[in-house]
Amino acid sequence: MILVTTETVSDRNCATLGLVTGNTIQSKHMFSDMGQGFKTMVGGELKSYTEMMAKSRAIATQRMIDQAAAMGADAIVGVRYTSASVMQQAAEVLAYGTAVKFV
User: Fold this and answer.
1) pLDDT in tens, 15-43
2) What's the CA gap between 11 and 89, in Å, rounded?
């Protein structure tokens, strides 16, 4: 599956199939969250959260790809990501784009 942030795939004619999305909501366990809270006092990267968000993006992306594949898509154009806090220790990552078929 080809994923691009552009509105087209270079040198390809595409037929639009529709919107595809994938999302996940992740949280860290209480002890990890406390450890990261202490880290904010001294500064620096919160590696545990960086890893959590990278994993979340990968899951959301795969779910979006699976939805596009079920529609018979060859690519997803206009791929975007967004995130939001859904509660104090949980964040949602949403991947979305437009599924297209090469013609």
Assistant:
1) 999 999 999 998 765 454 555 555 555 56
2) 44
> In the block, which residue shows the tokens 């450890």?
35
When divided into structural domains, the chain yields a total of 1
Query: Would you tell me how many other CB atoms lie within 10 Å of the CB of residue 85?
Result: 10
d(CA 14, CA 6): 13
Which amino acid, 31?
A: F
E strand intervals along the chain: 2-3, 14-27, 75-87, 90-102
* Sheet bearing 75-87, strands edge to edge: 2-3, 75-87, 90-102, 14-27
Residue 44 has pLDDT above 80, yes or no: no
Q: Indicate which CATH number applies to the domain containing 8.
A: 3.30.110.70
